[in-house]
Amino acid sequence: MSVHKANHTRSTIADTIINEMTDDENPDMEVNLKGYHHGGKGFRLIVNNVTKLNEITQDLWKSIISSKGLESKIEADMMNGKVNIDCKPVEKRQRNIKCNYSVMYLSISLILIYILWSRHI
After folding, report:
1. What end-to-end distance do the CA atoms of the chain give, in Å?
2. Please, which pLDDT band fits residue 97 given cuts at 50, 70 and 90?
3. Domain annotation covers residue 73
4. Is residue 85 part of a domain?
5. Is residue 39 part of a domain?
6. What is the number of structural domains in the chain?
7. In angstroms, what CA-CA distances link 108 with 47, 70, 100?
8. What does the alpha-carbon distance between residue 4 and residue 9 come to, in Å, rounded to a whole number?
9. Which domain holds residue 44?
10. 12-20 and 55-66 helices cross at what angle (nearest 10)?
11. Helix (H, G, I), strand (E, B) or coil at 118
12. Residue 110, domain member (yes or no)
């Protein structure tokens, strides 16, 4: 996913996530905003100076991000001590409108066929 830096102002959501992300096992860890996704649909955080990363820390980070209504994808590069976190808004499930229209037209057709059939008898 590409990230661009056209928007230089940080959002309040990104600021609160950055301030809440702490880790006792990595006291010199730095969390920075890398940039925003195209179309303003989320942002990417970069975490530097990470020496230890376990599932408990990842779950804590994911819960912090999900509490703000975002989904997260964590990519770790432990050779360089960096972690990239993609944060996106939770995608709402779209209803299948074509299916709803098909059911509506089918039911109307069946009702009309029944009315014509009942008049014929």
Report:
1. 65
2. low
3. yes
4. yes
5. yes
6. 1
7. 58, 41, 12
8. 13
9. 3-89
10. 150
11. helix
12. no
